[in-house]
Write a structure and sequence with these properties.
Largest sheet of chain B: 3 strands, mixed
Largest interface: A-B, 30 and 27 residues
Structural class of chain B: alpha+beta
Shape of chain B: globular
Radius of gyration of chain B: 11 Å
Distance between the termini of chain B: 21 Å
Strand content of chain A: 5-15%
Order of helices and strands of chain B: HEEHE
Structural class of chain A: alpha/beta
Oligomer: heterodimer
Largest sheet of chain A: 5 strands, parallel
Strand content of chain B: 25-35%
Strand order of the largest sheet of chain A: 2-5-8-1-9
Distance between the termini of chain A: 80 Å
Number of strands of chain A: 11
Number of strands of chain B: 3
Helix content of chain B: 40-55%
Number of helices of chain A: 18
Order of helices and strands of chain A: HEHEHEEHEHEEEHHEHEHHEHHHHHHHH
Strand order of the largest sheet of chain B: 1-2-3
């Protein structure tokens, strides 16, 4: 996870997909507001990156950005973690400790894994967000906090509300500006952009030139399901940069999971996909076919010493058809013309001399 | 006893990609429930490729063939 000190908006890759572009446009708009944002997305889709981006594009950017994963703490600990505690509140509380809300004073508090917060804690959270005040554990005084709350969730909170595992009032309090991050497998067009970006970044960190990447590796990356999303892709790239010793990333550099995951279809499909031209430049079928035709006719004329009847036989077509095709392919050079009369034996020996 | 076909079918899954990179993985020998393979081509001399394939291919072989024991890269 990127901490606030390592975050730079320049390190965010937007990608080509329309969905991500829409998300980044939305982030630009909502970073100006102070309303709650809820970011929903699978693990590794970049919830914390978006939260960082929201903070660092807002007017609060010179104030603290505090990120906390609610999944890290037990039910009791999460309260002291978020709201702090007073000295003597419990055994081991030897001094006052401010909570994360206070630490984010004036800035942004990112509560990740909000779906892991137990129901009993949800009501306290709601009060804190609604009243903009917190009370330390074991304390009596209310502390005013001015923080913008951004929450992250792996699960669809609306469904959790329906199931009764998430408080409806807290859901509506948090869900002012929703952002839904798509999993990487639903925006595969961004994989090459991200891959190149991570390769460059890790190569730079290691002080080496970014390596060349083979077509098979690009293919494997684009086929793999990436259950760990961008985080998994990032780690795969890091692993490759750290282990590559030859300057070119090839199949052998891939983690076994990626290699086998990408090969889960039929080997024939993979072979066909790999053989196909992977760049998107268009090709003309007619031009290609004419090229093939022209090559074959030239070959037949050559091996039959320019004898068109023999060449037609070799190609399995009629003599007259061959004539038409020679004309169509623009092969009507003098050499070929001379052989239209194979009946003259004196010509067959020195065809070029005869035409000269 | 592990059969050559069983091992080849697992190797065949990753083979197109290895071949596209100018390499291959050859089944050299079967000894009991262990397979000896050889990496050829571009990745043959790369330590990290050895590691990947060693672990990855062995894991895949064990997943698919219950009695499979060991993969030896020769």
């Amino acid at each position: 996870m990127k901490g606030p000190t390592t975050f730079s908006p320049d390190n965010v890759v937007v990608g080509h997909s329309a969905r991500m572009r829409a998300i980044f446009d939305f982030v630009k708009v909502v970073s100006r507001s102070d309303s709650s944002v809820i970011i929903t997305g699978e693990s590794g889709t970049g919830k914390e990156v978006i939260a960082n981006l929201l903070h660092y594009s807002s007017s609060r950017r010179h104030q603290p950005f505090v990120a906390v994963s609610c999944a890290l703490f037990s039910e009791n600990l999460i309260e002291t973690e978020l709201f702090g505690h007073e000295r003597g509140a419990f055994t081991g509380a030897i001094k006052d400790k401010p909570g994360r809300f206070e630490m984010a004073q004036g800035g942004t508090l990112f509560l990740d894994d909000i779906d892991d917060v137990p129901l009993s804690m949800q009501v306290k959270l709601l009060r804190a967000i609604q009243n903009r005040t917190v009370e330390r554990v074991g304390g009596t005084r209310s502390i005013n906090v001015n923080v913008r709350v951004i929450t992250g969730s792996k699960k669809d909170l609306k469904r959790m509300v329906a199931e009764g595992t998430f408080r409806e009032d807290l859901y509506y309090r948090l869900n002012v500006l929703p952002i839904v991050l798509p999993p990487l497998r639903e925006r595969r067009e961004d994989i090459p952009v991200l891959m190149d970006f991570f390769f460059r970044r890790f190569a730079k960190a290691r002080g080496i030139e970014p390596p060349a990447v083979s077509q098979a590796v690009r293919y494997a990356f684009s086929r793999y399901r990436w259950p760990g999303n961008v985080r998994e892709l990032e780690n795969s790239c890091e692993r490759i940069i750290q282990t590559c010793s030859c300057g070119t990333v090839r199949t052998g550099c891939l983690a076994a999971g990626v290699l086998f995951g990408a090969s889960s279809g039929s080997p024939a499909t993979a072979a066909a996909d790999l053989a196909a031209p992977t760049d998107a430049t268009s090709i003309s079928l007619d031009d290609r076919l004419q090229e093939v035709e022209s090559n074959l006719i030239s070959w037949a004329l050559k091996v039959s010493d320019g004898n068109k009847s023999r060449a037609a036989e070799l190609l399995g077509i009629k003599r007259s058809t061959l004539g038409d095709r020679i004309a169509r392919c623009g092969l009507t050079e003098p050499a070929a013309k001379e052989h239209e009369e194979p009946a003259h034996p004196e010509d067959s020996g020195e065809p070029f001399a005869a035409s000269a | 006893m592990v059969s050559r076909e069983q091992v080849e079918s697992v190797l065949g899954r990753i083979r197109p990609m290895m071949q596209a990179d100018g390499g291959d993985i050859e089944l050299v020998d079967l000894r009991g429930n262990s397979a000896h393979v050889r990496l050829t081509g571009m990745c043959a001399g790369c330590p990290s490729a050895h590691m990947t394939l060693y672990m990855g291919v062995e894991m895949a072989l064990r997943d698919e063939i219950k009695e499979f024991e060991e993969l030896v890269v020769v």
